[in-house]
TrEMBL record:
Gene: pgl
Protein name as it appears in the record: 6-phosphogluconolactonase
Family label: Belongs to the glucosamine/galactosamine-6-phosphate isomerase family. 6-phosphogluconolactonase subfamily.
Known catalytic reactions: 6-phospho-D-glucono-1,5-lactone + H2O = 6-phospho-D-gluconate + H(+)
Broad EC category: hydrolase
Pfam families for this protein: Glucosamine_iso
NCBIfam families (alphabetical): pgl
Length: 253
């Protein structure tokens, strides 16, 4: 796996704008090379900040939105349309303003969906949807870009330190129970599914991410205790940060 690369921006606003520009280029390049692109979205403040910056970027029209598959790295297991669901927030920030093909917007099932409040069944259904879109012999698509927010406790997607989900090696998607951050029930891609992505981008802006980033990038972390340290892409792992989130890295050097 590749050593993470760091890009530190002066502010969280610049980070969001630069990451949005980077995403436009990555999607346009993937569509030129393969006809379509697949991107995994993240929830949280930094992920939503990027989507809002993308909505405001004139170059967003360079993307062929009808040939873009969107997936989610995790979801808060709540009823459809709940304002706390990652998909609801993504729709508000960007998705409702661009001409996506609805069949290519792969939202994670909601808690009032076909699987009711059974998060494990909903996770299995999402795994099946991913497998159906994957190439021969693969369990998930070779995502072009998979984005992850980083929690102050070093969680990524809904893989929280020391919960069973972070140790999962067989399944690609799991139900998460007893998450320390509300809501307690969630659905998450596992580390093996995350590592199938060509590029993994970790978004970390703000002082509250500084310790988490330093720990994850120390090179000494155990991924069960520091899930962010286990998030790597096949071709590239990129940490996109602002100066506040990078402040503890400077002290480390
Ligand atoms: O609950 C979640 O939190 C993380 C991090 O969010 P942030 O607001 O601290 O940046 C996010 O990556 C994840 O997708 C989301 O479900």
């Amino acid at each position: 796996m590749k050593t993470p690369q760091l890009v530190v921006h002066r502010s969280k606003e610049l980070m969001a704008e630069a990451a949005a520009a980077r995403l436009i280029t990555a999607v346009v390049d993937a569509q030129a090379a393969r006809g379509t692109a697949s991107v995994v979205l993240t929830g949280g403040r930094n992920g939503n900040g990027l989507l809002a910056a993308l909505a405001a970027a004139p170059a967003r029209d360079a993307i062929d939105w009808s040939r873009l598959d969107l997936w989610w790295g995790d979801e808060r297991f709540l009823p459809g349309g709940d304002p706390e669901r990652n998909v609801t927030q993504a729709r508000e920030a960007l998705l409702d303003r661009v001409p996506l093909d609805p069949a290519r917007v792969h939202a994670v099932p909601a808690s009032d969906g076909p699987h009711g409040d059974d998060a494990d069944a909903a996770a299995a259904a999402y795994a099946a949807e991913l497998a159906a879109a994957a190439g021969p012999g693969a369990e998930v698509p070779a995502f072009d870009v998979l984005m992850l927010g980083v929690g102050p406790d070093t969680h990524v997607a809904s893989l929280f330190p020391e919960l069973p989900a972070v140790r999962e090696t067989a399944r690609t998607v799991v139900g998460v129970h007893g998450a320390p951050k509300p809501p307690p029930t969630r659905i998450s891609l596992t580390l093996p599914a995350i590592r199938a992505a060509r590029e993994v981008w970790l978004l970390a802006a703000g002082e509250d991410k500084a310790k988490a980033a330093a720990l994850a990038l120390s090179g000494e972390a155990d991924e069960a205790r520091v899930p962010a340290s286990g998030a790597r892409g096949r071709e590239r792992t990129l940490w996109l940060m602002d100066e506040a989130a990078a402040s503890e890295l400077a002290r480390q050097r």
